[in-house]
Structures are given as C-alpha cells and as structure tokens.
Amino acid sequence: MAYTVPKLTDYSAAAMEKAAGDLLSALGEEAAKVKNDSDWKAFRDRWMARKNGILTQINDQWLKGAPKEAKREAGIRVNELKAAVADIIDKAEYIHLELSTATSSAVDITLPGIRRPIGAEHPVIRTMHEIVSVFQKLGYSVAEGPVVETDYYNFEALNFPPDHPARDTQDTLFIAGQQSKPQRERLLLRTHTSPVQIRTMEKMRPPIRIVIPGTVHRNDPPDASHSPMFHQIEGLAVDTNITFGDLKGTLDHFVKALYGANVKTHFRPSFFPFTEPSAELYVTCFICGGSGRRGTDPCRPCKQTGWIEVLGCGMVDPNVFEFVKDNGYDPKKVSGFAFGMGVDRLALLKYGVDDLQYFFQGDVRFLEQWA
Ligand SMILES: [Zn+2]
Predict the structure, then answer these.
(1) Separation of 222 CA from ligand 1 center, angstroms?
(2) First-residue to last-residue Cα distance in the chain
(3) Cβ density class 259-288: b for 16+ within 10 Å, e for less
(4) Interior CA angle at 8 toward 5 and 9, to 5°?
(5) What is the pLDDT of residue 98?
(6) Cα angle value 332/335/339 (rounded, 5°)
(7) Which of 18, 42, 146, 278 could staple 272 via S-S, CB 3.0–4.6 A?
(8) CA–CA gap between residue 89 and residue 98 (Å, rounded)
(9) Taking the alpha carbons of 224, 225, 227, 229 in that order, is the dihedral positive or negative?
(10) What is the largest CA-CA distance in the chain?
(11) How far is the CA of 137 from the centre of ligand 1 (A)?
C-alpha cells in the first residue's frame, strides 16, 4: 500500500514526531526499490514534483493547515523533512548510478569535472563595505534612502535655495512630467546621498551618528572619470558640543584605517551649501607615498603633487538644522559635522584602475581579477 500524506488533526510534538517518522520510513522503503533511471525519475517526481508531490502536500496540509500557535513548530518540522527528503533522493540517484556504471563501466573518469565559478564582490561594492565598516567600528549605523527624491530633500532642505547657483554644479536628471507640481515636490534622481541626512534627522532625535552609502545620478556623459551613475558615502554626526576637532580626528582615523597608519592628512577650505565652514580632506598619495614620483616616472594619480583629495566635509550649516528644528535639532543647542566621498573614485585610486567605465561595463575578464 503506497504511502499517502495523512491529514493532521493533532499538532502536539508527539503526533508530529510520529507523522514525520512514518513519512521517512515510507521514503526509505521506496528509495530501496529504485533500480534504474526511470525508477529514480518516478520516485523523484512522486516526492518532489512541485504540483502535488508529497513535499508540496505536506507543505499544504501540515504547514498551511496548522493552527496559529503550532505554525512555528510545524514550519521547523516541515523544513527538516524537506531537507531529509532531498538528501535521500540525491543518495538514491547516486546509488543507482553507481550500480549501473559498475555493470556497464561506461563512465570515463578521466574526463574533466564541471567547474562552477564562485562569484565575487564588485570592486566598488567591496570598497564601499570597507569604508562603511571603518565607521561601524566607531559606532556609526547605516542609513539608506530613496534614489528618486524630491527637490525638497535633494536641494531645498540642504540649503540650496531655488535659483541658487550651487544647483548648477550638480547637473541634475529630472523625472519627466513634473512641471505642474510646486518645485519642492518635483521628482529627480538624487544627485548626492545627502537627502538621507534630512530624512534621518526627521525620524531620529539627536544624538546621531550615521553613514549613508548609495547610488546617485548626475547628467555627466560617461568618460574615464565620469559616469551618470556613481556611488557615494556620506556621514553625519550630531550631538551637543561637536567641534571641528571631532571632525578632524574622526576623518584622520578613517583614512589611516583605510590606507595605513603612515598617511598624513590635511584640510583645505572649500564651499558646500550645507556645511559652514567647509573643507576638502587631502591625504598623502598612497601610491607614491607623497613623493610625487614613482621611480623615475611622474605619479599620475596625485598629478605629482604628493596629495590626493579624498572627500568633502564641514560643520553642518545651522540653516540645515532649521529644517528639522522641531525634532530636537535646535541650532543653538546642537552642532555636527558631515562628510561625503565618491566611492568609485576611491576604488579607482585604490586598485590603480585608469578608466571608471571598466567598473560598469560588466566585462567578466576585468571583474574576475577581484574573484
Ligand atoms: Zn602620487
């Protein structure tokens, strides 16, 4: 009498145990009867067929039919059974293949095996993870946000007023058909990950320490150092009494963690609408060690200066806090710093790649160097 899946009315541990035991012993008996390929196929279909196979039936009858309080236990039990059934069916195949080869000796064991290549992290993602992990060890958490943003979060709340010239420095890709909406509600592809700073401050009261990795878009034609899609990591720390000294110490630690304890850092004044004062962080070139030369050749990545710019940073402009003032960010009481970097560019420098486009063309010959 062939095994059929019984309806369970009792979901106690003992009843489940017995039902599982019956199923497994039926499986074992049927497996022992597999003699050839067609036996094995019929056996596999009876147990594994997606439509009405025994595994599907136990899923439908035992798991879906279980009362709410027994669901968890039934789920664990059904998963164990599924794994056990798949395992026995594999073994049955192996055993009957062994038997058939023993009699026909048709398999040529000198043929090469099947190679299954293992995937690897993309170099940009790998760099991103390295950067994020430095900050995670400092107690930062990771925040993410939408790639399609409103003008309000991408510009206005970051102190880019309408018609401000700083908007022109970020060639923005706008979503079509938005003209009828007020400007602050119009959608665009975010030009930086900074909108997530505002979104996070709206949700979380100070103190906060976050890093924000993600993709951003700008209307830049692709070339060796530009791409319409690229990756940024931003950071934001807000608390009472955060100073420029905290910013310098944190970022100095960050580049040393990433490039080694020997690199030196220095800050040059800069401008960003959402920080005041603003700076660019330079590190001694990690390729030539700051000499500007590689042997007798000039060092190209640092343009022979011995310094490489790695990120922009500054103290959060009080005007930005005004937008989230009601959530505890009174600019008279809190202060903070923010920084942002282009991950793709850092990956280029780190791995000595001379054309950004290699990262996005999907050529396996290039990418498998990181495998
Ligand atoms: Zn150099």
Answers:
(1) 25
(2) 53
(3) beeebebebeeeebbbbeebbbbbbbbbbb
(4) 155
(5) 66
(6) 150
(7) 278
(8) 14
(9) positive
(10) 87
(11) 29
The protein residues having their C-beta less than 5 angstroms from ligand 1 (an ion) are 285, 287-288, 299, 302
Write down the pLDDT at residue 166.
66
Extract the tokens encoding 254. Answer: 């960050």
- CA distance linking residue 237 with residue 342, whole number of Å: 19
Question: If you count them, how many residues does the chain have?
Answer: 371
Instruction: Give the integer Cα–Cα distance in Å for 104 and 102.
Output: 6
> How many angstroms is it from 293 CA to the middle of ligand 1?
6
Distance CA 224, CA 356 (A): 5
Expressed in angstroms and rounded, the spacing between residue 347 Cα and the centre of ligand 1 is 15
Look at residue 102 in the predicted model and tell me its pLDDT: 55
Model pLDDT, residue 62: 87
In the reported structure, the alpha carbon of residue 252 is separated from the centroid of ligand 1 by a whole-number distance in angstroms of 19
Say if residues 19 and 3 touch (Cβ distance below 8 Å): no
Give distance in angstroms: CA of 299 to centre of ligand 1. 5
Q: Which two tokens stand for residue 175?
A: 């979503």
Distance of CA 262 to the CA centre of its chain: 30
Tell me the residue type at 287.
I
Token output for 287: 């390729």
Task: Give residue 104's pLDDT.
Answer: 53
User: What pTM did the predictor assign?
Assistant: 0.66
Contacts of 34 (CB under 8 A, 6+ apart): 40, 43, 92, 95, 96
Q: Are 193 and 233 in contact (CB under 8 A)?
A: yes
- Is residue 182 within 8 A of residue 167, CB to CB? The reply is no
219 CA to middle of ligand 1, Å?
Answer: 30
- Cβ within 8 Å of residue 41, ≥6 positions away: none
Collect the ranges in the chain with pLDDT lower than 70.
Answer: 97-106, 166, 169-170
Q: Strand runs (DSSP E) across 190-244, as ranges? A: 208-217, 229-239
Give the number of other Cβ atoms within 10 Å of residue 91's Cβ: 12
Q: Is 371 helix (H, G, I), strand (E, B) or coil?
A: coil
- How far is the centre of ligand 1, averaged over its atoms, from the C-alpha of 109 (Å)? 54
pLDDT of residue 101: 57
Tokens of 222: 């692709």
> Residue written as tokens 């059934």?
85
CB 303 within 8 A of CB 272: no
